[in-house]
């Protein structure tokens, strides 16, 4: 693609590095910014730079944070006996948005994936094991996506946590709310029957 | 959506102002930037700010440009007897990418749309009419999208250009290359028959 301006070409090339943004989308975004007030672009750029330069990772749970210890870890109202282990920051946000969980988190920063060269030492597993004895945690909730890599990570963690004297649970698998039985895959449907719960239970 | 950090919330809010970017996508982009080297974010921000602050519009054709007169208008190899009228900068880029057009351009900056409150005076029509007598233009190619608004704009222009002593043409309408007759709409197919060309003509 030829551009009439080196300036727009530079912006398009940078925007096209973002995931899911091709050169056509990048051009659309750049032209949008050119149509809007320049203040819009400056605010966007400032917010990105500020975020990248100033954001921290919580020293305890590795969640992103504005402070050394994140707002969840430092909240006295959270249940310190519950620890939810997730692979990614996005999972923390997703679970927080359900408003159903009041415990603490631990973000692994990925899952074990030999294909991508990610081993246990690349994840925040060591810090999880170090954190436990000093904590009041009685139950660890593994909330890792049920993929091959996720299950491997879960299996590795349960072995590592065998001697930790905590209950290990995992999020329920089953037919999604609003999902139709007919279109649910066999493994999920099978598990939802084996792990059936009392009708009244929410 | 609750965010664990005000910094990421700020970035997500700014990113979500971009067209086609919702809050979920914005979060994905922000988290991507956090995973990459901070240099990536700084380069993106700098490219956007630089583009917005320094880009100009060509004083002659209103295309975006790094200089007062754009690289197309100032190129001595372009055919100055041909002037292609388009509604948007994107159309210039699209036509340039075909490498089939060697004339000049005039960017209207939109189309006449009473619903959106865009009248002829909001477009670069006056500057087109002023530009013509001083130019060597012999043919004006109207390359405006064949929508209701586009056709209205084209009709308005042909009336305004009636006394300009230039040939007025428009881009060919017909079945797209690679398109199947069966799936072509009736108006396009009808026009492609009425305006049929010699078989050997490319």
From TrEMBL, chains A, B:
Instruction: Output the superkingdom of the source species.
Output: Bacteria
The record's listing under CDD domains reads: TOPRIM_recR
C4-type zinc finger segments:
58-73
Name the UniProt key words of this record, in alphabetical order.
Answer: DNA damage, DNA recombination, DNA repair, Metal-binding, Zinc, Zinc-finger
The alphabetized list of GO BP terms reads: DNA recombination; DNA repair
- Which Gene Ontology molecular-function terms are recorded? DNA binding; zinc ion binding
- Asked if the keyword DNA damage belongs to this entry, the reply reads yes
Describe the location of the Toprim domain by residue ranges: 81-176
InterPro entries on file: DNA_Rcmb_RecR, Hlx-hairpin-Hlx_DNA-bd_motif, Rcmb_RecR, Rcmb_RecR_Znf, TOPRIM_dom, TOPRIM_RecR
Q: Which family does it belong to?
A: Belongs to the RecR family.
The name this protein carries in UniProt is Recombination protein RecR
């Amino acid at each position: 693609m030829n551009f009439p301006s080196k300036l727009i070409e530079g912006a398009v090339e940078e925007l096209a590095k973002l995931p899911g943004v091709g050169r056509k989308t990048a051009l659309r975004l750049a032209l949008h910014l050119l149509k809007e007030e320049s203040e819009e672009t400056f605010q966007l750029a400032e917010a990105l730079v500020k975020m990248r330069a100033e954001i921290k990772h919580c020293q305890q749970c590795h969640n992103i944070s504005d402070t050394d210890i994140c707002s969840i870890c430092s909240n006295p109202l959270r249940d310190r006996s519950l620890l939810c282990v997730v692979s990614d920051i996005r999972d923390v946000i997703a679970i927080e948005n359900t408003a159903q969980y009041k415990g603490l988190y631990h973000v692994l920063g990925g899952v074990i994936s030999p294909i991508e060269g990610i081993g246990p030492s690349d994840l925040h597993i060591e810090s999880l094991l170090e954190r436990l004895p000093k904590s009041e945690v009685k139950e660890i909730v593994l909330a890792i996506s049920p993929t091959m890599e996720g299950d491997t990570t879960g299996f590795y963690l349960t072995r590592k946590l065998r001697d930790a004297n905590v209950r290990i649970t995992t999020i329920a698998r089953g037919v999604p709310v609003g999902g139709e039985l007919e279109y649910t895959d066999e493994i999920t449907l099978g598990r939802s029957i084996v792990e059936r719960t009392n009708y009244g239970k929410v």
